[in-house]
UniProtKB/TrEMBL annotation:
Gene3D superfamilies listed in its UniProt record: 3.40.190.290, Winged helix-like DNA-binding domain superfamily/Winged helix DNA-binding domain (1.10.10.10)
Record GO terms (molecular function): DNA-binding transcription factor activity; sequence-specific DNA binding
Organismal lineage: Bacteria, Pseudomonadati, Pseudomonadota, Alphaproteobacteria, Hyphomicrobiales
The organism's place on the tree of life at top rank: Bacteria
Pfam families documented for this protein: HTH_1 (PF00126), LysR_substrate (PF03466)
Gene Ontology terms: biological process: DNA-templated transcription
Keyword Metal-binding: no
Residues annotated as domain HTH lysR-type: 1-59
Family, as annotated: Belongs to the LysR transcriptional regulatory family.
Species this protein is from: Candidatus Afipia apatlaquensis
Record's function text: NodD regulates the expression of the nodABCFE genes which encode other nodulation proteins. NodD is also a negative regulator of its own expression. Binds flavonoids as inducers.
Keyword Transcription: yes
Name under which the protein is recorded: LysR family transcriptional regulator
Amino acid sequence: MDKLASLRAFVKVVELGSFSEAGRQLRLSRSAISKYVSELEQSLGVQLLNRTTRHASPNENGQTYFERALSILADLDAADQAAAHLQSTPRGLLRVNAPMSFGTLQLGPAIADFMEMNPELRIHLVLSDEQVDPVQGGFDVTLRIADLESSSLIARKITPIERVICASPSYLEEHGIPAHPNALRNHTALTYGFLLTGNQWKLTGKDGDHWIQPSWLLCANNAEVLRDAAVKGRGVALLPTFIAGEALRLGKLRTVLDDYKAPPLTLYAIYPPTRHLAVKVRLFIDFLVARFSAGPEGHRDTAVRHAR
């Protein structure tokens, strides 16, 4: 027996004085309403209603039971509304994992604004350039800048991350400006070696794709380290524009091979599959999509200083 359905049917019959009217209100047949009430009476071992062909009214037992049933259903409705309110209002703890550079340069200010919009939410942010397991790490949202491999996790695209090849003016003056991707083989590279392509650089231009295995002097898993080495004249780097942007604007770095493009990476928000996505997770990801819809700060072409 569906006790809750039987309670609702019984209460509606008492309120309306009719099985037929109760059925219309609950969008059930008269026979279904009658069955629910009969099953309720059988489970209790008492009769609750006096019935005629056109009318139903509670007897003494039925009236007492009706009053208690009203209270029970009211409490249940209040609990449902409270749960719905919790689902519509972000609160509690949101655990986020993100890459170190993106976290310090871009995500920090964004999270501060998100916190202002959602004062009942606490955020635990862990920055790491290691590929942590979101599930084992207990993170609600994991941000990654990469070409994702297949996974059982759900990934939502936030924004593309553009990259440029750049070097310091002093390095280019000493070693020359490469005019073709093949010329990079004669230059010292500063490379991020933790992508699916390893240390290879793929550059695409009007003459097709070029895969370059540069001779690297520094390989690091943090692009800010590579940027700083490039600014010091240590070599040529392939950097995300949101990391190289300020140095490009200040003229500390200049782009080269502007007719060739590296495939953009993508910023993804990753989270475990779930039937009902927590409102705090959904709102946070929606916020990131809106925040970075035009790309991270520092990515824009106006920030780029080309080599001359």
